Amino acid sequence: MVNRERAVPGRGGAEGCCPDLLTAPLGEERAAELAKVFKALGDPVRLRLLSMIASRADGEICVCDLTPAFELSQPTISHHLKLLKQAGLIDSERRGTWVYYRLLPQATDRLAALLTRPAGQAPAGPAPAAPAVRAL
């Protein structure tokens, strides 16, 4: 993701350079960039893959450890990983025949900063009711 929004003193993303979603309207280009990231995160398989990569204590995981966690073919898992990489959420490195994936924390930091309400800002309206949890 490339940040092209103007700086807002005292506020902004993880690097303090960009307004967040709740302090200034997004420009057309920035909205298109963010839509790609949120689209990548909008798939349950990709969200699980990202979580598996991010939760590794050593910061990276081999594709050989990701594939068995899903009832999907290896090419399908590779496609999902490719989309996460194109969205700028992960990076990879080939070592011999295996590819190792790691989270790009600056990307998730920017998303977190984008969605964080400024300190002291009250919610716009009453909080929505929590969805009912069904027993499976």
Question: Helix amount, in percent?
Answer: 25-40%
- Main β-sheet, in a few words? 3 strands, antiparallel
Q: Please count the helical segments.
A: 5
Strand % is 5-15%
Number of DSSP strand runs: 3
Cα radius of gyration in angstroms: 18 Å
Give the neighbour order of strands across the main sheet: 1-3-2
Sequence stretches where pLDDT stays below 50 over 5 or more residues: 1-16
End-to-end distance: 39 Å
**What is the overall pLDDT average?**
81
Give the class from helix and strand content and strand pairing. alpha+beta
User: What string gives the helices and strands in order?
Assistant: HHEHHEEH
Overall geometry comes to globular
Description:
The chain is α+β, with helices and mostly antiparallel strands and 136 residues long. It is built from 5 helices and 3 strands; from the N terminus they run H-H-E-H-H-E-E-H. The protein has helices at residues 28-41, 44-54, 63-66, 74-86, 105-115, and strands at residues 60-62, 90-95, 98-103. It has a 3-stranded antiparallel beta sheet with strand order 1-3-2. Helix 2 (44-54) crosses helix 4 (74-86). It is globular. The model is unreliable at 1-16 (pLDDT under 50).
